[in-house]
Design a protein that fits this description.
The protein is built from three helices and 13 strands. A hairpin with a 7-residue loop joins strand 6 and strand 7. By secondary structure, the chain is an alpha+beta fold. It is elongated and about 80 Å long. It has two domains: 29 residues, no CATH class; 152 residues, Ribbon (Umud Fragment, subunit A). The strands form two sheets. Strands 1, 2, 3, 4, 9, 10, 11 and 12 form an eight-stranded antiparallel β-sheet that branches. A five-stranded antiparallel β-sheet has the order 8-5-6-7-13, with no helix packed on it.
């Protein structure tokens, strides 16, 4: 087997000039650099904007209406895509669009589903539907101990309406005041709590312990 090596003479004739085809295109000229930079920015925006405005959205909690479940200045990621394919469920925490005359988004919990009758009496919430025609008490373990749900009203929801309330019932502006919500008013559901880091949480469906009256 013969191995052929370049001679010293050949090495001395080698040039240090770089092959222009191997130079990155953005480095050929200042103009090329800025063109490449603009491309990168446009590609990044093409990815970020749909995610930010159509799939997931950040949300800061403001106020005490959802205590003790959520506190002021907590940072949430809202899932905006799930409700395009499935219906909201009881117990899910949702962000709703600003009410008429207001600019602030609200965060509330879904209590009543389409077609149900919601009865608030004796400080508790009762649900009436086809499965529970005689009514069922809603046990809400996420509330402050001893919470009294005021309202004193009975509301029957239409086929596209939801009844929402804040967990801190004594200070919450919710469906007891502004009435049931259409699904179109719901921005999305709380998916992640990312701040504070020590309270990071992925929110899952709440399981109620329903008991007939």
């Amino acid at each position: 087997m013969r191995l052929t090596f370049g001679s010293t003479q050949n090495k001395s004739k080698k040039t240090t000039r770089k092959d222009p085809e191997k130079i990155p295109s953005f480095a050929k000229s200042p103009k090329g650099f800025f063109v490449e930079l603009i491309k990168i920015v446009l590609i990044a925006l093409a990815v970020i904007i749909p995610v930010r405005y159509f799939l997931f959205q950040p949300f800061y909690v403001r106020g005490a209406s959802m205590e003790p479940s959520f506190h002021d200045d907590q940072y949430l990621i809202i899932d905006e895509i799930t409700y395009r394919f499935t219906e909201p469920k009881r117990g899910e925490v949702v962000v709703i669009k600003p009410l008429s005359g207001r600019t602030d988004f609200l965060i509330k919990r879904i209590i009543g589903l389409p077609g149900e009758t919601i009865d608030m009496r004796d400080g508790e919430v009762f649900i009436y539907d086809d499965q529970y025609p005689d009514g069922v008490a809603l046990h809400e373990s996420y509330l402050f101990e001893g919470t009294y749900t005021s309202g004193g009203k009975k509301v029957t929801l239409a086929s596209n309406e939801y009844f929402v309330m804040g967990d801190n019932r004594t200070v919450s502006l919710d469906s007891r005041s502004f009435g049931p919500l259409n699904k179109k008013s719901i921005v999305g559901r709380a998916w992640l709590r990312v701040w504070p880091f020590k309270q990071f949480q992925h929110f899952q469906e709440y399981e109620y312990n329903l008991s007939s009256i």
